[in-house]
Specification:
Length: 486
Amino acid sequence: MMLGIPQRFALESWACVLTAWVALGTAGCSEGDTPRGTPAPAGMAGASASGGAANLPAVTRPDPELALLGSRDATYERVCARGHADAFSTALCAAGGRPRIADLAALLELVGLGSQRAFALSGNSTSLVSKSVSALNPRMLVFPRVGDDLAPPATLVAVGFVRGEQFVELVGRDSVSGDLNFYLVSFEQRCSYDASGCSLADLLTEQVEHDWTTYSVYDQEDLEATPFDCKSCHQPGGHGTKLMLRMQELSSPWLHWFPQRFVQQTDSDRVLSAEFMAVHQHDQQYGGVPLPVIANALDEGSGAQLEALVRAEGFADQPNPFDAQIVKETQNGSSPTWQARFDAHLRGDAIAVPYPGIDVTDPAKRDAATRSYQDVVQGVAPRETLLDVRDVFSDDATLKLSFLPQPGADGKTVLLQMCGRCHDGRGNPALPKNQFNVRNLDALSRPLKEMAIARVQASDETRMPPWRAGTLTPAALEAVRAELGR
């Protein structure tokens, strides 16, 4: 999982355990298109997003990894039975039964972030949802405000959300152990019961933030063997070490964060806020925060506020950071510092590093997606014509964010780049998925290599790498087969 800071709390992992392939599980699994379809008839939902799940139909296109972990009441009871002592678990599991969470605003209210809060939007992410994130569809992080003295907040709960996915990521500090607990809240909408699943308009407009019918909740222990494994990014020290908050862009000028207007307006705010407002100017809210608040934010909305929280919690030392030196160097062309960070990622030593430029989008794709979104939300165009506002990355960003392997790379390099985040030998040795270690290919058994070959060639949701992580080109696939065939 990765809550993160899209380069930050990185809730991420590409693990996958689909029973038939349990030995490989993780970083590689799950391909499949984003759900499509049309909204279910009004009234089908019937339930309040609390208990009432027994009266709801089954989800027609559930996430294949989360489905293995159960859903609805069963997940709530399992998480609450573990007795976590962070503010989210305390509110969720309080006497009186399962709380109603009918929308994103209600979830923020439940964890104490309804009004007394700070927030930041990211236009580039190296997290679980990296392929969904740009200024057109940014990742929203909502968290407690921290004072100038950088004293940790009395309680810590932070929430991460991006449109296009029916889940919200949370992290809380345990009041007993002091450790971080990570969660995923997976919600259902009326369209979840339609034969074709949910449409782009259901998932990418403001509709996805409202009218939830019910929800499931998973913690880091549930998720460890899935593509949502929080520990693959939040536990960079390996199995048994403490989990941490992630924010690779920890210091000024916070190149991919916006808004950023106090003290001085940053270039990222000028560029990314303008692109964001061009798309969402007719929305009422984004990520549970009213649009006027985002548009007029001063100190309450910024990467600097998130930096303060991460430092206050004791996580100033970030692996594979994106620092101010990179920004300075790119003003004169390429950045040797960024290249060194990227090379560490290619070796399988670290997660990807954020893009070296402010904007990850292709201008033509961005303009088309902006027009399409405006036309649909204003009723000028039919809902089914909405373009996917996530499909806007430039060719350069696609390569530098590792959505595709490097051209001409050999099989070992491809495996390290595309699978190293989850299959690098750092994970829980008790989990079958961690038998597949791309940093020690020579030690893999022949049956395990053959299983990996089958997975990269698969045409269903078991394919490696999972669609959220990236795609192998035909040349990269051939190189991987040759490497594993040795």
